[in-house]
Every structure is written in structure tokens, then in C-alpha cells.
Design goal:
single chain, Nucleotidyltransferase, domain 5, 3 helices, 5-stranded mixed sheet, 5 strands, 136 residues, alpha/beta
């Protein structure tokens, strides 16, 4: 028995144990191999192309007013029923087609408003709106 002598097996280890590092790297590799194909899986879609140029052609607005007596006014100019049809036909052939805004007096008979809407539909007007005043 030798007291005070040192064995050859008791030397200090100067190298890093690489086994845990290799295990961690293999686990990470497997995780990336599984998740990358899932992340790249997508539906191929051919999206439409859009221009970023602003549209300069803003359609004009036509105000068709109907007073209490049932008289038509095309942008504040007085019209007869026949002239209304001619104006509507001319407006419906424009590109882009103008928007027709109907302003009917509160006291006008609905029949006159319905006649104006019917004439606009027959001539091919597609954008028809009504103007009202805000209520209380």
C-alpha cells in the first residue's frame, strides 16, 4: 500500500465531452428536417396584377331635380319630358357613364320620380342615386 503515490488514472481531464453536444445537434437537425417542408408547403395562386397609377377619369355627376310641380331640371336647366329622354340617352352613351342623382321635392308626386327612374333605366343608365337632406 502506497500512501502518498498518485495513480495514472486520476489525471485531470483536459478535453470537452462532445457526446451531449452531438446529441443536441442531431435533435435540432431532425426538428429542422421535419418543419422546413411544412413551412414551404403553400398553394400556388396566380394573383391578378393591379396598376398603382391613380385613375384620372372620375365620372361626372348629373343632378336631375324635380320640383313640387313635377318639372324636371337637368343640372339646374329646365327640361321637358322629351328633352329628358334625349339627355339621358346622351349621358348613358358616355364612357365612363356619369352618375345620375335624383333630387325630388318633398311635395312632388311619386309618379314623376318613378317616370324619371323608368326613363333612366330604359336608356341604360346604371348608376342612379337619390339625394336627401339629413333629418333631425
Amino acid at each position: 500500500m502506497a500512501f502518498g503515490t498518485q495513480d495514472d488514472n486520476d489525471e485531470v481531464m483536459n478535453e470537452i465531452n462532445m457526446t451531449p453536444l452531438v446529441d443536441v445537434m442531431l435533435v435540432l437537425l431532425i426538428i429542422f428536417m421535419i418543419t422546413v417542408p411544412v413551412m414551404k408547403h403553400a398553394v400556388d395562386i396566380d394573383l391578378p396584377r393591379a396598376s398603382n397609377q391613380p385613375q384620372d377619369a372620375k365620372p361626372e355627376m348629373i343632378r336631375l331635380s324635380i320640383d313640387a310641380a313635377g318639372q324636371y331640371y337637368w343640372n339646374e336647366a329646365k327640361l321637358s319630358d322629351e328633352e329628358l329622354l334625349v339627355q339621358l340617352q346622351a349621358a348613358s352613351s358616355k364612357t365612363p357613364q356619369p352618375e345620375l342623382q335624383i333630387r325630388g321635392d318633398r311635395a312632388v308626386r311619386y309618379e314623376r320620380v318613378a317616370q324619371a327612374m323608368s326613363a333612366a333605366k330604359r336608356t341604360g343608365m346604371k348608376k342612379i342615386g337619390f339625394l336627401t337632406e339629413p333629418g333631425n
